[in-house]
Each structure stands twice: as structure tokens, then as C-alpha cells.
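G., the chain you wanted modeled:
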Amino acid sequence: MKQQTLYKGLVLMALSLALVSCMDGDWNTPDMSQAPYGNSNIVESEAKLVTINQLKTTYGSVIDASGFQRITDDLQLKCTVIGNDIGGNIYKQICVQDATGAMIVGINGTGLFPFLSVGQQILIDLKDLCIGGYGQQPQLGDEYNGSIGRMSTEKWEEHVRILSTHDMSQIDTIDFFNVAQNDITRYSGYLVKMENIRIGDADGTTTFAPEYKSGTTLTYNGSTNGYVHHTINGASMNDLLLRTSTYAKFAEKIIPTKPVTIYGIATRYRNTWQILIRAEEDIKE
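Predicted structure as C-alpha cells:
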């Protein structure tokens, strides 16, 4: 067990050094299908496969009620990673998408990105996992204090298989401002872009988030929980915020005062939409 843990650590270190960021958040990584990660015993079955849209439809009432339910049927989800913790702004979760939709997967672990890189296709064994809504945001995970939460890393590795396919072309990027208001909930969890926008409090000195200091309580821009919310000027919808963690690697970067194009994961907390930038490369002046 110690030898396997050491091997994983060495692989993680090597891949962290090898990661290269490209245009629009395209991070190229080696094929991880043979890495010591996940469960290679999971066998894909056409009879068991479901789509994200089918999950959202089947468990729609549970998600809308911000509840959760354990999946008891022998089901599988084949999907592509579209967001991870490489930039420090997505925390203990990944974002996945298939041809029908997108959602969040909560995992109580960090350093996920070398094995779960953007564009990596994975197969998830859904039986015994929980699905629910965190503030109506669809999420896979496990029960935590009577609601949907993160699953342990051990459970996650039992339920995921890293497939040989790594294909950025499988990722759809949605123009968030062109989504009809009555259809917008369909795109919860998607990678979106917003063009020619200004971030509300950009003044040439304000940063995305303040420096995190251990043992202190963050009180900044109306936030006290380690995240900072910025308004988005030029947005065609209300209740839309840019959400940045104090742990994000770009947190102390000064917010651009010029118009920018932003890529990020569109998440929701009830009726408020929160865009999560994956890494600094998702901000284009």
C-alpha cells in the first residue's frame, strides 16, 4: 500500500511539472488510461449507460428541492472532464460533460488535475453514489449532513475508470449571453464564455481576491467564506457573478480594466449564477 501511494505521488509530481496550458484552457497531458488511478475493473456496458440529461430528468425533483438520493440502479455515465482544480479556483470537485449536458462531481480530495485533465474521458459507475442539488446545482457525490456533499477519494477511485480517449473537441463552449432565459437552467455546469464584458469593481488596483492568511477570517466584497464575488458589467441577465477563491493561483492578479472575454464553469446557487474561472488562461483581454 505504501509503495502504491509513493508511486502515485511520483506520478502526480511528474505530471504537474509536465502540464502545459494552451489556448482557451486546453491543457495537454499524457494518456492516463494506464495510470495507477481509478478502477480498471469497471467494464463499459451499453445496457448500463445513461446520459447526464437522463440523470437530471430522472432526479429533477430531488435536484430542484436541493435534496439528494442514492442511486441504487446499476448505471454508468461516460463523460468528459471540462474543469478541474488546476487553477485552484475549483475546489474538491471536477466538472464533466457529455453530449446532453453537464454537472459537478464532488470529490473530497485535491490535486485531481493530473489524472482528470481537461478533455479526459472517464467512465463512472453510478451505483451507490448520490445525486442531488447543492442550491439546485446538479451534483454527483455522497451524503453529507443530510444533503448532497463530496464523496471520499477512496470511493471515487472505486467508481471511476480513466479511459484512453483525451479529446478537447468533445467539449462544447456555450455563449452564455445567447442562451434564452427560459432555457438557461439546462446549461448549469457547462463551460461557457462571455465576450466583451467588464468586471464590476476593476479600478487598476483591485485584485480577484485578497491573499489568504491562515487563521484569519476573510471579509471582502461581502464575502466571509474564502470566496469573493465580482459583478459583471455588460451582462444581459441579472444575478450573475464572477466567483473567485482566495486559494486561486490568479487570486492576487489585478482585475483588467479593459473589456475581456471570460471562460468558466457556469454554476448556480438557487437563482444566482456564479461563473468559476478554471485558470488564469480563461481570462482573455
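The chain has two domains: 23-29+44-170, 173-284.

Shout if anything looks off.
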